[in-house]
Every structure is written in structure tokens, then in C-alpha cells.
């Protein structure tokens, strides 16, 4: 087994639209996964907010190609059937949540494919799904996660979550070579920005088109072309949030789009406004 400390280096705010606005209305803490779970878990986060009555904040995220387990206290979502531990699969569209009142969330962000590898299940049925986590995760894990809440410090909550998830990693847990291969492909996507076509990955990793598709659909829940496009869109949005001053044509070319028109169509379809409007914050 390799050292997965930085296997998928996506532990950033990439994907959060207008992160500075979210920071003004919430508190957010991130924690690294412990060494026993780094192969599957990317990080933990604790988000809390307490908004005055009658006010709301529209949180908008372009999610990563990863599943999340969350413990949610306050503002229950109808899909969760009142259960506090929630599984959110890979979301292929912009993910919008209205933050109101007072609430608290502990999130476990898995590496792409991590939850599927830990549970031995396919991630494909979880795509675009929000459901009670008991539908996919053993009760012993859920029972432990239900012990966390805002009355505990963030580090205590993370320690409890680590203990709960560690029960899935038995001493005789089989080495999942296919998952290791997936992580290697993902690492290339994230560290080599010159990769803008799936065929480049097929050639580099000696995988057929069908083989690569099956690998991604089982572990991640979506195909490799979608994942690559989402990472490049994260890069483009992060550049705009960081104060990009160049032309949109240069931005498009820098992140794999061959023409500005195609980039604008993709950006608008996902983010909801054209990149020029997003940059000027006129929404």
C-alpha cells in the first residue's frame, strides 16, 4: 500500500462559489484524516451558522467527484427522513442549499471512490442522490456518528468519526488494487494540467476506453470525462475568485477549452451565469 497522504490533493475551497461570502456568514474548520484512513478519506469539515430570523444565505457549490457523509443538526432536509447522518453521492449539477436559522454540520469528504472501496458497493446508484446513510453504511458506523454534535469540540467530533470509520478497515481488509489504480489516474488529472482529454489518460495508464469507464462508474459514480471537466471548471472558477485579470479567452485556453464560446456555454450551464457576470459579481 502506498503513501496516500496527498493522493488526491483537492483539500481546498475549490468548488465553493464566492467563498468569501460564505466565510462572512459561517464558521468552517477543516481537519486532515488520520493515517489509518487517509487512503479513503480526504478530510473532515465542521460548518456552523447562526443567522438572524428572516435572513438566509444561498450556499452554492460545484461539488467534487466524491461522496460525503454528514451529520446534520438543524435545518433537516426532506430527503433524509429525519435521520441526522446523510450520504450525498457525486452531484453532477450545482449544489444549492439555503442556510437559515441555526445549524451545524460535520462532513466526511471521501476521496473519489473512497466510500465505494470501503463499503464494497458501487457508487453509481448514489449519483445525484441525498439519502439516509443507513441505506449504504453499516449501522455500527451510523450509531457512532450519531453521537457527534455542536456540543462537542470539532476535534472531538473528528475523533469519533475516525473511530466509527475505522471499524470498516478490518486487519484483513483486502487490498483494493483497482481503487489504487483509480487514485493514480486521479492524481494525474489533478497534478498535470496539460491533461485535457480522456484519451491522454488511457494512453498513459494503458487502459482501454471501456476499462477506464467501468473503473470510474463503479468507484466514483460518473465517467472520467465528467470528472476531468469538473476539475478544470474548478480551476477556472478558482482563478476568477482569485482575481483573474486576463481575458476570458486566455482563461478558457489555460484550462483546456479550445474556444471561448464553448467555455462560456459550459460555465453558464453549471454555474448559472456567464463567467463575465460571475467575475463582476452582478448576480
TrEMBL record:
GO terms (molecular function) for this protein are: DNA-binding transcription factor activity; sequence-specific DNA binding
One Pfam match: DUF6597
- Cite the Gene3D superfamilies for this sequence: Homeodomain-like
Give the HTH araC/xylS-type domain ranges: 180-281
**Keyword annotations of the record:** DNA-binding, Transcription, Transcription regulation
Q: Which InterPro entries match?
A: AraC_XylS_family_regulators (IPR050204), DUF6597 (IPR046532), Homeodomain-like_sf (IPR009057), HTH_AraC (IPR018060)
Concerning SUPFAM superfamilies, the annotation shows:
Homeodomain-like
Per its record, how is this protein called by name?
A: AraC family transcriptional regulator
Amino acid at each position: 500500500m502506498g503513501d496516500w497522504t496527498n493522493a488526491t490533493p483537492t483539500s481546498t475551497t475549490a468548488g465553493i462559489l464566492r467563498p468569501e461570502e460564505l466565510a462572512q456568514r459561517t464558521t468552517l474548520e477543516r481537519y486532515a484524516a488520520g493515517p489509518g484512513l487517509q487512503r479513503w478519506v480526504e478530510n473532515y469539515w465542521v460548518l456552523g451558522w447562526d443567522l438572524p430570523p428572516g435572513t438566509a444565505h444561498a450556499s452554492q457549490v460545484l461539488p467534487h467527484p466524491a461522496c460525503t457523509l454528514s451529520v446534520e443538526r438543524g435545518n433537516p432536509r426532506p430527503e433524509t427522513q429525519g435521520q441526522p447522518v446523510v450520504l450525498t453521492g457525486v452531484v453532477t449539477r450545482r449544489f444549492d442549499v439555503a442556510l437559515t436559522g441555526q445549524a451545524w454540520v460535520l462532513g466526511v469528504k471521501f476521496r473519489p471512490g473512497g466510500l465505494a472501496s470501503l463499503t464494497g458497493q458501487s457508487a453509481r446508484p448514489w449519483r445525484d442522490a441525498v439519502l439516509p446513510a443507513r441505506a449504504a453504511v453499516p449501522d455500527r458506523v451510523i450509531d457512532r456518528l450519531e453521537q457527534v454534535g455542536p456540543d462537542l469540540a470539532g476535534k472531538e467530533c473528528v475523533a469519533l468519526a475516525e473511530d466509527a470509520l475505522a471499524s470498516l478497515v478490518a486487519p484483513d481488509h483486502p487490498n483494493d488494487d483497482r481503487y489504487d489504480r483509480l487514485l493514480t489516474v486521479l492524481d494525474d488529472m489533478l497534478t498535470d494540467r496539460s491533461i485535457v482529454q480522456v484519451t491522454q489518460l488511457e494512453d498513459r495508464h494503458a487502459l482501454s476506453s471501456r476499462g477506464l469507464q467501468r473503473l470510474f462508474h463503479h468507484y466514483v459514480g460518473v465517467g472520467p470525462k465528467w470528472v476531468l471537466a469538473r476539475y478544470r471548471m474548478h480551476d477556472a472558477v478558482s482563478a476568477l475568485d482569485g482575481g483573474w485579470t486576463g481575458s476570458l479567452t486566455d482563461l478558457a485556453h489555460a484550462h483546456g477549452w479550445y474556444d471561448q464560446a464553448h467555455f462560456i456555454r459550459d460555465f453558464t450551464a453549471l454555474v448559472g451565469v456567464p463567467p463575465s457576470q460571475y467575475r463582476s459579481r452582478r448576480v
